[in-house]
Amino acid sequence: MNLDRQSSHRLSYAKSLADSVGFDLLGTQLGWDLELALKAALEAGAVFPVGTDPMSIFRSTLQASICDIEADKRGLLFQRFLRDGPYEGEGDSPLDLYDKRLTERETASAITFIYSFMVNSFKGAITELLAAAACQQLMREPRFADTLPPSTRLFVGDAVMVNRALGKNKAKGADLHFLVIDGHESEAPCVTVAGVGEVKSGHKSSGAIVAQLEKHILRAKRGIRVSGVDYSGSQVRLGRRPDGRIIRISIQPSDWPLPRTLRFETTTGKRRLVLDPPTPPLNEDHITPMNEDCWHISLRWSKEALAAAAYEMTFWYMEKVGEIIYTKKGDEPDPKPAEWGEMTPAEAGQNAIKMMLYYAIRPYAVKAKEETLSEGEARIMQKAIALYNSYGFGYALGMNFRNKAGRREMLWPEDLDEIAANGRNKDGCRIR
Prior knowledge:
This protein is α+β, with helices and mostly antiparallel strands. The chain is 45% helix and 18% strand. The strands form four sheets. Strands 1, 4, 5, 8, 9, 12 and 13 form a seven-stranded mixed sheet that branches. Helix 1 crosses helix 3, helix 2 (28-43) packs across helix 5 and helix 8 packs across helix 9. The radius of gyration is 24 Å and the shape is globular.
């Protein structure tokens, strides 16, 4: 399959996945908040790369994240991890399974890909959409609005692309641009960059964000593309007239933690774990003027809440990949293991990731007991445990189940019973 066909297939597949879900993929309250936020941003005139209504914008954003995951060279490695995984036995892999299981290095790469790239792709996309609505709220702030021309509009994400220093291809610029487009004062139209915004879904120092914003401003001077229309460097004005200042805005999630409480309920004879839903303590985003030209926005949704939603999105994606890997094709044998016979392909996909993570953790656990675990191996082990626990018990509990030394440990149902009764398990591990 050539590259054009691969890209077309990838785009079609990502679109079919994105079009199969709605805002409830994010959970009831976050999904509802995001839908309302996008609606408010659109009503105020914000311009998004694709879509003119909240659902189409959400789905196109989700589609873009899936395309990024599929296009990464580790995307196929992830699929192999889900289908074949590392060697499931103890000790070295037998020779007859050498090419049928992932090596330790491949396994480590797949785990890092899930933990970092996949999760961050979804988390960053959702944070950027929430930030767009927050910036529209900022534009109604009198102290801010008075510094911008009345015709200023907010452009989100790839609605604005910048010229590269070399070559003709475009590159991503700032996450958010406040632009004034003017085609009347001169023969050639021009665009004024009145402000730029940078969105971070995790922790980043204010100094680092400001430095990144300065780079975005300089890149904009090379020339930009706004909603498909190109403006050369000579058509781009930096700063508001007459003083030439540019507003700089940093946007980050807030810091409140997810609830750590847990309880069990029994329905139709089955006992299940119930977690309290995340509830933001504030009703709106918090806007802080840093100085005359710099503002900071703390979103009402926190880093932990957005990370938890991103983990659920990756788990959903694994379900969809499982539907491809574990669906029986024609007269071929059922690709599911015999003991999974009652599972649907989607259930098999979600079961597979937990099983493969368990197999991946075992050799690291043996080395840890023998005190031969290197620092690099310890980091991979901690990532694998975080994924395994979070997919089994939710992000709030799974990510934060730690031993006395502060390291993550594998979480089991009996641990939750002990923690519910005593605040810790028999080994002293707690939900921190």
